[in-house]
Amino acid sequence: MKPADEVLFKRLLLLERRRSERMGSRFAVMLVDMQDLSASFDAEAMDKIGEAIGATMRETDIVGWYRNASVLGVILTTLNGASRRTLEDVVVARTRTVLSVQPVADYIQQVWISCHIFPDDEGGGMQTPDGMFDGTGTYSGRYGANGTNNAKRAIDIAGSLMAIVTLSWAFVLIGTLVKLTSKGPVLFKQKRIGMDGKEFTFLKFRSMFANSDPAIHQEYVRKLISQTLADSQGTYKIKNDPRVTPIGRLLRKTSLDELPQFFNVLKGDMSLVGPRPPIAYEMEKYSLWHRRRVFEAKPGITGIWQVHGRSRTTFDEMVRMDLRYVREQSLWLDIKLLFKTPLAAARGKGAF
Question: SS3 string of 232-264?
């Protein structure tokens, strides 16, 4: 049977990923990278190699070109509890046996084979020769070149210092209003989870009454992540939260309660742009694929979700937005999101 072409295979891979997320089950993808062979064999010969590999797989597995006549993919739809070691010992070994016969035998050292389980046991996604495999049929390197990271950090330092100095009057005014309108400290401090699971102290202007019970939010988050909220409640934040003060509602609506996070950025716990940092009890409810948004990027004050989704989107959609940022992040994307943030905050749509 001829392997599915690239477009069809990527579509099937996307559908399998969505099924995995919906059902909470795992699947695997084996990639047979034959790019170095493509110059030695024509497309017809490469298809025959793909057919030979496909003939050794189960009827439930899906064989197709991840990259036409270059990288072959095999979707292992049912793992039956098989570990990564089992896949490597059995499936990869079987594939190498197929490739050990002519006409490929002389070129076997030029073939790169890897197995990737989705979601990864450690929430780290799928690693491929080119970088992070996101399950959508694209290769994309993680935002990790030292020069780029150094430039991002330089922008974070310069931007946070500029914001703190320029908005110093706002810090004083908001702090005074918070103090005069309700009892309690001006700043709200909370432990959040940052990049690679590192905990840090997250700062905001206090928008709730002092000593508010977090149980309301914990229960809401549990239902939100498990997708058991009614459709009318499908927002990230609680509507009409009784714990929020009158001035706090205004601060949340305009996102002015987030201003102290510039100090988090200056310290290095956060970035100007990145995913929203979760609370520990949120992380406890995360599925494995959800955790990628935490481990793969430094949390930020603003990001794709804050600009384009805010509280108008579901939790899974928010995570997908964050993972999209992880895949596509660049200095240019950060700059675009930073310029769009003031308008999104001024509109106040989806903020509560």
Answer: HHCCCCCCCCCCECHHHHHHHHHCHHHCCHHHH
